[in-house]
Please model this.
Amino acid sequence: MLTESSPNTADPQTSKQPDPPLEFNPLLPEFRQNPYPTYHQFQDADPVHWSEFFGFWVITRYDDIVTMLRHSKASSNPRDWERFDDYVESLGGTGPAGDMQARWMLLKNAPDHTRLRKLVTKAFTPRVVENMRPHIQTIVDDLLDPIQAKSNFDIIADLAFPLPVIVIAELIGVPTQDRDQFKEWTGALARSLDPVITPDISAAADKATEAFIDYFTRLVAERRVQPQQDLLSGLIAAEEEGDKLDEDELLATAILLFAAGHETTMNLIGNGMLALLRNPDQLAKLQADPLLIETAVEEFLRYDGSVQVTARVALEDIELGGKTLRKNQQSLLLLGAANHDPARFSDPDRLDITRQDTNQLTFSHGIHHCLGAPLARVEAQIAINTLLRRKPNMRLATQELAWRDMLTLRGLKALPVTC
Model:
């Protein structure tokens, strides 16, 4: 197994001691609050870093991460990792969550990934999403109406969470009255996506998965009898044609779309609004020219992305940044670090909503580029512009903000504002 080379010893003629070797520790509270200084440390000193403690590589530079995301011998399936069995054993087994997630297109390689993705791509094309704009605008207005007269509210609870839940629920075919019960389930599943989790997190994800499977099993049975004009009915039709989707894949795909369809968008809206409120010059610029919203959302995705991490496993030895990633070793690709790579972005730690050249990696890259990206963009554009128009004098109600205890997905627990 590869390890880092030993640090140089200190020159006995000087009093300067060598810097201690870098250790990647995403569990530190200060990292949760602001990971970007740590990203820069690794980009400068050890951009292809072997973590002996965690047993995987940590990749932080933009070009290296793009290389891995596009590499034909870099697997999205965590089961290819040499330590997978030991890791799963430490959690007490894969359980319902692990078994279900193994059927997600997110963790599949071609040809299974291609087959599964093709079945749902049509629902998320830019043209389809653009046609949804008026309805999304109506949803946003309906959510903001009850808080219009309030001087204090929570952007997450009142807008960023319910909006994408309503949209994805309608798209998939989840009845409106059922959507609120999914909050706890999706939160538990989201935490299980981190590269290192505890048995408690694993157990909560298993419980949430069982609830999800029970719910969608019943809903699928209803749709088989009475199909609707929704994505779930379309997936059922594909499954019944044979050789395209089996029952377990159908349920797993429905759960993935629902969970991913609101977690990332909720964080995009929340993180974007926080960035504006902490940069009043950019807030004023967007209020003065709402047409900047498209570049603004791209900048929010780059500046404080809702997805910070993805992973790949080498299927053969891969040379990267002067290091050799051995076959079956896992690499943690820090998308958030790539988005702040000074070799790729000018003044990367500065928010600039007019920035033209972003090409951010929050939605990943290559064949696994997020198929829901067009929908997330439109939801964020409408939500943020409408909020700024209807609540033009917002300011943070507190500087003491709590981030959700996750590495892969970055978002706030709450974003209280006053106006």
Strands lie at 48-51, 56-59, 74-75, 152-154, 309-314, 318-320, 323-325, 330-334, 395-396, 416-418. The first helix runs from residue 29 to 33. The chain has one domain: 44-418.
